[in-house]
């Protein structure tokens, strides 16, 4: 593998953000783009930060050759950050645009983490209960039954024995199948745009992908409109950054705009945004006065989306907790039957 490729692998997204923010600080202090790149290179050399040094060197060489800054950044910054950097340079609002983009990135990250934190604990408890069931059915209960003069013919004991046998023999296959199905489900959520997609969404499927796409579109479009881009240009800028599913909705929004729609809620009413966000956009008046309304909606969109996702996630968590309680009751029932048989012997 080439050395440059190895450097890129260690060039994490967080370090990219830090490099861009530091570069903006040099620009804000009055340095020219070339002076800022040289300062970044010397600083990275002093602290032996190789990817940062290479990035600054590439940028300085590109500026000396009279080439656009994006030629040096391309391939070293992730696409979303690169496009925002390019847009900020073109609109002469680089620092402000990057700061606001970073704020929205952090809000989306906190939204994702808050949702997953509520899922991890019950799933971990379910895994522990399944492991306890497998150990009880394969090791603990057989030892107790060996002291019983007669076989314990009770449905709970037979159920634990059968379930533990399935977990031991097929548990790994079930786990791999579950992971594979999860990956396929995620890929379909991001790329499938068939006509049955909307019907399945109404039944609750792909709700997470749709909700996160709605947050991303609302926040990014508000960010672009706030920095003097037209709605048409903003939609065009977002299309290369979006996955196939979200890109399809962006193209439909562009078609609504081309038909002469003036209400922002009508333009963005493609089925991606939930009704709560469309209601707020509808109250934002016409397109000419809707930038502030869209911005206010974007700032609150993650809370609205979280409430919508949680209404569906509670059902999933309820089923998980129901499975946990059911397995614990089954283990207690089976253990009680075995102990009763031993005491009566």
TrEMBL record:
The organism's place on the tree of life at top rank: Bacteria
Transmembrane segments: 120-141, 161-185, 315-335
Keyword Zinc carried by entry: no
Keywords annotated in UniProt: Membrane, Transmembrane, Transmembrane helix
PANTHER family on file: GENERAL SECRETION PATHWAY PROTEIN (PTHR30012), TYPE II SECRETION SYSTEM PROTEIN F-RELATED (PTHR30012:SF0)
Protein's name in the database: Type II secretory pathway component PulF
């Amino acid at each position: 593998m080439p050395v440059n490729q190895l450097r890129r692998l260690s060039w994490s997204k967080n370090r990219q953000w830090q490099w861009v923010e530091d570069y903006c600080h040099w620009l804000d202090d009055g340095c020219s783009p070339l002076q800022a790149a040289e300062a970044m290179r010397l600083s990275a050399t002093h602290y032996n930060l190789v990817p940062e040094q290479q990035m600054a060197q590439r940028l300085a060489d590109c500026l000396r050759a009279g080439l656009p800054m994006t030629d040096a950044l391309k391939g070293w910054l992730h696409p979303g950050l690169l496009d925002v950097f390019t847009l900020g340079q073109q609109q002469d609002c680089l620092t402000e645009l990057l700061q606001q983009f970073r704020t929205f990135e952090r809000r989306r990250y906190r939204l994702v983490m808050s949702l997953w934190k509520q899922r991890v604990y019950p799933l971990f408890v379910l895994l522990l209960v399944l492991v306890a069931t497998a150990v009880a059915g394969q090791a603990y209960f057989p030892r107790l039954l060996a002291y019983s003069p007669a076989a314990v013919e009770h449905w709970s004991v037979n159920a634990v024995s059968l379930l533990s046998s399935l977990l031991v023999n097929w548990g790994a296959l079930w786990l791999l199948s579950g992971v594979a199905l999860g990956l396929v489900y995620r890929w379909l959520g991001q790329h499938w745009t068939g006509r049955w997609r909307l019907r399945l969404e109404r039944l609750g499927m792909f709700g997470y992908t749709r909700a996160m796409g709605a947050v991303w579109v609302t926040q990014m479009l508000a960010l672009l409109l706030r920095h003097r881009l037209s709605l048409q240009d903003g939609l065009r800028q977002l299309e290369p950054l979006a996955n196939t599913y979200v890109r399809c909705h962006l193209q439909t929004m562009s078609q609504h705009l081309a038909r002469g729609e003036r209400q922002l809620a009508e333009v963005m009413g493609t089925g991606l945004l939930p009704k709560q966000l469309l209601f707020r956009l509808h109250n934002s008046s016409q397109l000419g006065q809707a930038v502030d309304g869209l911005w206010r909606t974007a700032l609150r969109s993650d809370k609205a989306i979280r409430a919508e996702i949680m209404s569906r996630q509670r059902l999933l968590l309820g089923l998980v907790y129901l499975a946990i309680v059911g397995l614990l009751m089954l283990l207690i029932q089976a253990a009680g039957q075995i102990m009763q048989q031993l005491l009566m012997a």
